[in-house]
Design brief:
alpha+beta, Immunoglobulin-like, six-stranded mixed beta sheet, four-stranded antiparallel beta sheet, 10 strands, binds 2-acetamido-2-deoxy-beta-D-glucopyranose, Pollen-specific protein C13-like protein, Pollen_Ole_e1_allergen, signal, Allergen_Ole_e_I_CS
Length: 171
């Protein structure tokens, strides 16, 4: 007879534990920062990844939800930001808490450690992603698009690489 309340207690406590786990789910966000060494506008076989690049994760809480006001960051609130640096393979990793369903999050370039590769590529200096699993994102990993800088001068080999890409496009 003593077993039943015990089981009930265990079931109750496990339910609470799993609810807590789900609420506190940690989302990992990872991606890379590259140097477009051919100034190609796309990744080539000589694209390099940049260790030590400063990046930031920022989540913005949009007021309203009208898409017309979505880009008026001024009237909205930055919910939180996290600063990060890429590792020696050019990868960054962030850990953030799930539960910001209404937020729009970005990873943004902050600073390049390479004087020869610090030119911003419009559209490649930030990548938008959905953080919350409530927004329909399954799992606890997010992979925003890679972020990239342009190299000041293309590598010597780029001429022949670009020629090859152009030839491939002809077919
Ligand atoms: C990249 O591609 C070019 C052209 O196909 C080739 O000559 C070169 O060896 C390749 N470089 C690397 C690092 O793979």
């Amino acid at each position: 007879m003593a077993k039943l309340p015990l089981l009930a207690f265990m079931a109750l406590c496990c339910t609470f534990a799993s609810v807590l786990l789900v609420n506190a789910m940690e989302i990992s966000v990872e991606g890379r920062v590259y140097c477009d060494t051919c100034r190609a506008g796309f990744v080539t076989n000589v694209t390099e990844y940049i260790p030590g690049a400063k990046v930031r994760l920022e989540c913005i809480h949009y007021k309203g939800g009208d898409s017309q006001v979505e880009n008026q960051v001024d009237s909205d609130e930055i919910e939180f930001t996290i600063d990060g640096v890429t590792d020696n393979t050019g990868k960054y990793y962030f850990k953030a808490q799930d539960g910001h369903e209404k937020d729009t999050c970005y990873v943004v370039l902050v600073e390049s450690p390479r004087p020869d590769c610090k030119e911003i590529i419009p559209g490649r200096d930030r990548a938008r992603f959905l953080l919350s699993s409530d927004a329909g994102m399954p799992g606890n990993k997010r992979f925003p698009n890679d972020l990239g800088y342009l190299k000041d001068k293309p590598l010597d080999i780029c001429g022949s690489i670009m020629k090859q890409y152009n030839t491939e496009e002809d077919y």
